């Protein structure tokens, strides 16, 4: 039986920020496979086998936004359990996001790379 490397999706239309996220993810797990997407539609179309072990998701995306993506993946049994970390500059209201399997919210202006690596270690090791 072959062991697959964990897969992480980064969904963010800001290329520079996505590159920074990818660097922080690699520090958390060097063997992880990372796929980046600039919009929700491309990420949805890439869902397959294997499913991602973790998704870092921006809310403000071109086309369907991050909440549309969340509604879509939580409507399927196989993708509803994927842990998701929101990465956004929005100040989100204190609402219950657990229905979307949100494991955390990182503010783009205040987050530290170590916060990203902590999530990666938690969900891929």
Walk me through the structure.
α1 crosses α5. The chain is built from 5 helices and 5 strands, in the order βαβαβααββα. The protein has a 5-stranded parallel β-sheet with strand order 2-1-3-4-5. The two termini are 18 Å apart. With 125 residues, the chain is α/β, with parallel strands linked by helices. The protein has a single domain, classed as Response regulator (Rossmann fold, 3-Layer(aba) Sandwich), CATH 3.40.50.
Task: Kindly summarize this structure in a few lines.
This protein has about 120 residues and is an alpha/beta fold. About 35% of the residues lie in helices and about 20% in strands.
Which architecture per CATH?
Answer: 3-Layer(aba) Sandwich
pLDDT average, as an integer?
91
**Largest sheet strand order:** 2-1-3-4-5
Task: Indicate the multimeric state.
Answer: single chain
Write the CATH homologous superfamily: Response regulator
CATH class: Alpha Beta
User: Main beta sheet, described?
Assistant: 5 strands, parallel
Domain count, please report it. Answer: 1
> How much helicity do the residues have?
25-40%
Q: Enumerate the spans where pLDDT stays under 50 for 5 or more consecutive residues.
A: none
The SSE string, one letter per element, is EHEHEHHEEH
Cα Rg? 13 Å
Structural class: alpha/beta
- CATH topology value: Rossmann fold
Number of helices: 5
